Predict the structure of PEP-CTERM protein-sorting domain-containing protein.
Amino acid sequence: MITACSRLRPQLPRHFLAGVCALLTLPSASQATTTIVDSGGFESSAGYTIAPNSDALEGQQGWVTTQNNAGSATVQNTVFHPNDGTQAVEVVRGALSDDRWAVPVGPLTIPNDRLVLVDWDMAVPATGAPSGTGPFFGVETYDATSGFNVLGTLGVDGTTGDVMYQAQSTGVLTEAGMTVFSGQWHHFQIRLDFGQNQYQALLDNTALVSTGFVDGPSNQFTDADIAALAAAFDGNSQNQTGTAYFDNFLVRGVSRADFDIDEDVDGVDLSIWQTAYGVSGAADANLDGNSDGADFLIWQREYVNTPAPLVSATNAVPEPSGLALVLLAALCSKVRIR
């Protein structure tokens, strides 16, 4: 959830069924995807405007924010993903700033046969600091239905280039073992598994880590926040400024077995499983890091039975202005550090 005093706890860094296709007669595919938040690439065609009419992300297309007045998120057309449109969001972190932007939803009750996927493209120019940790740019996911529980977090330290995720229980930002080059665009994804109460962090479609939900079990989803924070709790990181660019922000509820994420579970997904079996995690339906017989059984079950739809606990998406007041009530949640 959005809060000016984060629940984020920063840290100091650093062949099965081979003939199955021949044996199956495939009926029509089952529908598998529910769009939760689609930024439309922050393009003008999706309703996002830039100066002189507007440029602040807040107030556009349902986005709300809490911030310490030192950071900003603006829609601009100077830096954007090279393959997708001509607009993106520039996020600037100021010294001692702790800022978030999100489109609140639901709360949504997530069935066990669904995953929530948060996708975005991000480029993080290096701060130029000679050493130490710096600002963290990325996405946090929350269940704010009872307290402000973090589900999972993924992003980049703007000084070191380290890809970082939030660890289970301790909540500290932890290096995922990969770095990105300054200013280069990369694709990030958080996969939330409410059946197993864990999340998987991916960089450029490669799984980096799977770990439990940061603040424990949940079956509710309320928001995925663009975040600009300190990557650690030391003075150097707290005072470090930086900039990042976000594009193609998308939140979806999908079937576990929709491996190509094309909104259905069909024979193409089975082919992906066959190719990935024992080789990669491209057909990893249960988020255990590999593609195996357990993933096939999930595909088989969901192919025959259309996954349950996502259900709003309130049967309506609250108005952003009203929900923002609720979110602002959490301005002083605890910060834990290592």
